[in-house]
Amino acid sequence: MAVERHRPILQVVGFQNSGKTTLAEKLIKTGIELGLDVATIKHHGHNTPQKPEAGLKDSERHRQAGAAITAVEGGGSLQLHIQNQSWSLDGILALYEQFSPDLIVVEGYKKAPYPKLVLLRGEEDLELVQELTNVRAVITWQRLQLGPKPYPVFSLEEADRQLASFIHFVLPT
C-alpha cells in the first residue's frame, strides 16, 4: 500500500490579464529563496499549448523564475518541461513513479479545491470571488468594497510582502 504524501499546492487565480503569471513568478522565486523545490502547472483555457503565444510563454516565465518542473495544459494537450543536468533512463523512469516537489504553484484551474490567491483588477471581477472555494487571500489592483469576508484582502504592493507567509500556509508543519 502506497503512502500518500501531502502535496503543498497554492493556486493563483483571476481573470485574463489580472497578473496571475507575475504573481506565480514571485511565488516561485520566494519559494526558492526559502530553499524549496518548486513546480508549476499552468492551465491554458484558450488554446492548445503548442505555440508560445498559446500559453507556453507563461510556463517559460515560470521556468525562468526558477521552477524545477513546469507544465501547461489546454485543449486536452499537456506540455511538460523538467529542468535537469542530464537524463538517464532510470531518471526518466523515476519521474513516472512520483513527483516530489516541496511546493506546487498552480496558475488557473479556478474550480479546483486547493488554497487560492485570487487576483481582482476591479469591481468587474468581484463575481469571481463568489464562485470560488478555498480562498485564502484576495489581492486587488485597486481598493474594492468586499463587505464581510473570511480571508484577508491585500493590495498588489502589500501582497508582495506576504509571499513567504502565503507559501508557509500550505507547507506541512
UniProtKB/TrEMBL annotation:
Ranges annotated as biased composition (Basic and acidic residues): 54-63
Sequence ranges assigned to domain Molybdopterin-guanine dinucleotide biosynthesis protein B (MobB) in this UniProt record: 9-141
Entry-linked InterPro entries: MGD_biosynthesis_adapter (IPR052539), MobB_dom (IPR004435), P-loop_NTPase (IPR027417)
Pfam families referenced in this protein's UniProt entry, alphabetically: MobB (PF03205)
Origin: domain of life: Bacteria
GO MF term set: GTP binding
Protein name: Molybdopterin-guanine dinucleotide biosynthesis protein B
